[in-house]
Structure prediction request, 387 residues.
Amino acid sequence: MGGMHGFGLKDRPLAELYRTTTGPVAFIDESYREPLHTDERPFYSMSAVIVGRDQGALVRDVLMDIPGSTYWHTTEAYRTPAGKRVIKEMIEYIAGAAEYNIVTVQTQIRKDDPSMKTARHECLGALTKELTRGSGPNAVRLLVVESRNARAHPGGDADDANVLKQLRSAGSIDRLVHVHHTSPSREPLLWAADLSVWAFRRNLAVGDKQWFEPLQDISTVLHVDGADVSVKRSNPHLPQQSPGVQQTVSHESGRGRGRGPAVASASSVVFDGSESEALARIRRIAGAAGKTVEQEVTLAVATNEPRRLVAAANAYLRQSRQPGAPAKPRTEEAITQAAQTIMKPEGSQKVKDALEQLRQQRAAAAENRPETAAPRQQKDHRPGYQR
Prediction:
């Protein structure tokens, strides 16, 4: 199960972009706290989760299989204990399956930017420049961004397109960089970005670190304004007791034009097409964690994770039910043996029953398939030989 196409992808223009572009794909979502008249510091953040092109279909399948739904919103799921357990499982899966994760955050919200439009532009600009620095086959050239509500944000997606247009005109990004806006209901891989930026927000807003911790090893955080990311710093719209921190910027905005880029949390894992040791390690993890069902099964046994095995089995079952999908007896045997190894008997039996049901459906479909007439045999007119 390779590539980006598969069950759950409902956006045809995006499917065409997957077909005509190359390299890993970045999935982007936002989170923010508005500049209200309280002591809570406003901020704006964006997260880009990068998924390898050869594993997108599997990651999408697993993300849908874990909650067992084609709809997802992390904030809603967090309201129930069961939802919190699902969030934890999905974040842990993303930490192993994504190639890397980049977050941009703006904490110095201007008084003249109550809608946070400027903050979004600066975060998106910094994020795009960082994501697309590389060159060669592993460079990111496609950004998939969650569409904004047109009523709440009249400029909507067109504003984002203008940001990229300005970056291209300035020579800050490659001219082959594409941006496509869509809904998470049409591309569930956007759920990964929703989970990542939600986890970062929990850490930033209320100091709840547990959700973002699994993503730390694959994450780089860029502070657009250079401010420290303290949880309870007072609102800059209210009287301040101190002048605040010294400003450094990583995106050349109007507030710090000309300064060099500064990564506040860690060294960048993407630079001029070369791979750092961190990125090389991340790629090794991703290579072992999510490119095929077979690798997922192997990893589930190696790490003794029954849930991971169930997710891989569900992904295989869904793939196998697609029209024209070939049978893979070796994969089915591997899933069966893995279930016997790491699952309780009742769980192992459920996996066996599901695979047996698949085989029966396959056999029934073969019986109902209309027979095709055998091709007429052609005579071989060579002397002494008749076929």
